[in-house]
């Protein structure tokens, strides 16, 4: 009973807490202007150009917190508020996405590994539950095992995402400090925004591992 309570706490509470944490941090620091007065677009462009990366575009993306780096088109895409705004949150997020552009440029090993896992992760996310539940319904333990293998690919993707995101945040901090985009008094706030965002990936990985562990236990129980 205790293990099930821990499982459901991880499955339900942790993701909600992570999402609320990032929303609170973003809401708070999106209202705090940065000392540099640069928009998110200007922050991203400055970091890119200072590092000789003139082939990466900085574009506006619709929606809220839709910021991302697209390696296919070599584009840093920032949500409208961060693209045009001059807040600490916008500067932090813009720098973080540029961090992914650096990883792509330098063929960062974990990023390349994550890209290679995309087809496996997509298949695992879409198919694993159907395969596992079909195995449970028809009492086919080998089918459950097959579903677990598919799910393991998706879980591996989540785990590999963690060093990718933390590395991008570390690169972001190095750049905004070295280029004077933030001052010493703003370092703590910038880290809070980046840490809150990173924790959502930690939460997602924890949920994925908990799900995988549950089905592995079911599989082992059926074998006995």
TrEMBL record:
Q: Please cite one Gene Ontology biological process associated with this protein.
A: proteolysis
User: Transmembrane segments in this chain: where?
Assistant: 6-22, 116-138, 144-164, 198-220
Q: Which GO terms fall under molecular function for this chain's record?
A: peptidase activity
Which keywords has UniProt assigned to this entry? Hydrolase, Membrane, Protease, Transmembrane, Transmembrane helix
Q: Pfam families from the xrefs?
A: Zn_peptidase_2
The molecule here is called Zn-dependent membrane protease YugP
Organism, per UniProt?
Sutcliffiella tianshenii
């Amino acid at each position: 009973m205790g293990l099930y309570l821990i499982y459901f706490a991880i499955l339900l509470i942790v993701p909600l807490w992570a999402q609320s944490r990032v929303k609170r941090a973003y809401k708070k620091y999106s209202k705090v202007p940065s000392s540099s007065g640069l928009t998110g677009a200007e922050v991203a462009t400055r970091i890119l150009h200072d590092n000789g990366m003139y082939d990466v575009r900085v574009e506006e993306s619709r929606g809220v917190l839709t910021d991302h780096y697209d390696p296919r088109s070599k584009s840093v895409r920032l949500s409208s508020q961060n693209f045009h705004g001059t807040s600490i949150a916008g500067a932090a997020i813009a720098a973080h996405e540029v961090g992914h552009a650096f990883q792509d440029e330098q063929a960062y090993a974990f990023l390349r590994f994550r890209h290679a896992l995309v087809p496996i992760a997509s298949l695992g996310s879409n198919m694993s539950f159907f395969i596992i539940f079909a195995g449970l319904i028809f009492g086919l333990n080998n089918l459950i095992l097959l579903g677990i293998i598919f799910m393991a690919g998706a879980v591996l993707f989540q785990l590999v995402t963690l060093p990718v995101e933390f590395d991008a945040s570390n690169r972001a901090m190095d750049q905004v400090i070295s280029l004077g985009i933030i001052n010493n008094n703003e370092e703590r706030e910038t880290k809070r925004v980046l840490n809150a965002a990173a924790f959502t990936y930690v939460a997602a990985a924890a949920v994925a591992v908990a799900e995988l562990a549950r089905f592995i236990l079911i599989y082992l129980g059926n074998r006995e």
